[in-house]
Amino acid sequence: MENNQIIFKVEDGGGWIMLNRPKAMNALSFLLMDPLSSILQEWKANPEIKYLVIRGEGGIFSGGGDLTDVFDRMGTGIENTSEGVNLIYQVSSAVLNFSKPYVAVIDGIAIGGGMGISIPGSHRIVTENSKLSMPEAGIGAFPDMGSAFFLNKCPGKIGLYLGLTGKSIGPQDAIFTGLGTHYVPSEEIEKLLADIRKDKGENLDEIFKRYNRPFEGKAPIEVYQDIIDNCFNQPSIENIFQALAQNNSDFAAQTLSRLKVLSPLSLRTTFDLFKAAEHMTMEEVIEDNRNRYFKWLTTPESISELKEGIRAYIIEKDKNPKWLSPPIEY
Question: What's the whole-model pTM score?
Fold first, then answer.
């Protein structure tokens, strides 16, 4: 089964998915979401399929949700918006509940929704080309698709730091935080996948153990964990700003500067979401995200914020958003 945006194949005892929009950074359009959700449910129920492998064409895993799609749907009516939101979260739930080995080959960038369709899986391969981020606060949105759940599982307050700042991390940080499960050099990916095919998914853990290359030394983000934990373990977003301002390190100063250019409404919402997610299952976080996202696309204040972010970074690309929400005072 295939269309212009996504290719599905059943071969060698497994289901194989290729995101096929390289010119659009393999962005997750609404036209892609519906067949992806359907195939995941179909393959879950098919006893002949023992595992799943998902990857992206063109040296990219996925640049996340198709923001042009989102932009076009805003203001087109509640029914149209609801349909789009439901498609997104059907995929989130299908990935989470795929009860077989789910292998995401993150050889390239995985942004926002790209992490949403990879990190909940059982095996997350990263390579030297991997760059993971949840940059939604920079475009007037918030990290969704259950990301608050898996980011909260990162050591200390690193997950909240990543969710608020949108900071991109590489493969060693991905392994350290638990977002990636295995590091495999890009040049060995095809051999690894060939072994999975030959084995028909019977001994996945043995294969991954053979190809995994552990890192030595501290991960880059690990060096700053004490600062992150101290500054982000706060009762409010305002207190985080204050703690960063009072910290004398260059890292804290750079982090504060980064936060100041992001949407205040997005930062407040992201902080509240991560706090709430501390006491939720991932299924509950996904449902919470669904409700928040629908409200976000139907509330004038958040619609204006998201439209401005998409204008500044996706459409006109001046990278100078004029946020309408009140600034964070500290």
Answer: 0.94
